[in-house]
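Example record for the data management plan.
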Amino acid sequence: MTTNRRDFIKTGGLVLTGLMAGAAHATGLAPETDTTEVIQEGLFVLPPLGFAYTALEPNVDARTMEIHHTKHHQAYITKLNAALEKEPSLKAKSLEQLLSSIKTLPESVRSDIRNHGGGHWNHSFFWSVIGPSKTEPSEKLLAAIHRDFGNIESFKEQFEKKSIGVFGSGWGWLVKDAKGKLSIVSTPNQDNPLMDIAETNSKPVLGVDVWEHAYYLNYQNRRPDYLKAFWNIVNWQKVSELYES
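Corresponding structural encoding:
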């Protein structure tokens, strides 16, 4: 994999584009052009959602999406870039390389890269596995779900239970191991299964943000209701691609 940070998310199939995408979304339009040429070389940038902030309503309201994307996600990127200024030698590494070696990072930036780098990767991944279009799991993914969870309804129940059970803030994940076996895990804060500090180190194929900022305006403290609605916005086509790649 190239070490250019614009390519950091290749394993998730995302393409990073410029900060100007936020302005396009504010008007309700998805970005039409790649604006990375206006971004200073060596910096991580905010990826576009690929859909309008209103597109997920009523499951996720537009105001939540706008704040989540332009404020919360952008803040992680800003702080990640600031951390890397302290250790310029790390700028040559992709974000996956940084996250997979948390234990060996310089102490001066270890926590910042774990928290803010994790926040950037997690949100970029999250935007890729949700969307407004109705899709279904591929036959191959569906077969794996049936094999490892019994059926898709049982999988959803287990995924919701694991994600509801996250204490405080964190993420719920569907991951696959090197043999293609699926399992459900959770991580605290902005940790993820790519990190060498993760309890289960494996490839994410689906993730859900259960920080309150992801749902509080619409659902308040009703995390279970948010997770029920989550299934209406899962981009199963993308999840299937991630599983099969």
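Summary line stored alongside the record: The radius of gyration is 17 Å.
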